[in-house]
Amino acid sequence: QVQLVESGGGSVQAGGSLRLSCAVSRYTLSSRCMGWFRQAPGKEREVVAAIYTAPGRPYYADSVKGRFTISQDNAKNTVYLQMNSLKPEDTGMYYCAAAPGGIWWSSGHMYDYWGQGTQVTVSS
Question: Which helix (H) or strand (E) holds 48?
Fold first, then answer.
């Protein structure tokens, strides 16, 4: 059974940083699209970033460009989201998701597997 387990969330002040990890089991990262999504209370889920694992090409939502970096470690079967210069509007539950490599990165409904999420809270 495929498992995605997120970690690294927490509470930080605005301007701070967090690094989220997504450990993937029973699912190779080869030729996949791995995404990070978030959902704030009362809001719809939105894509934050994604990476096509071959060739490691990242994509970002406009709201996080220049502040967030998605990366992969194939040896550890893990995907990361480095979040810098955090803002209160970055608050939400962050989810890792996995999809075949042929999807459009921001198409949330095309992702096959999802983690349970990790909470990020940014205070002003």
Answer: strand 46-52
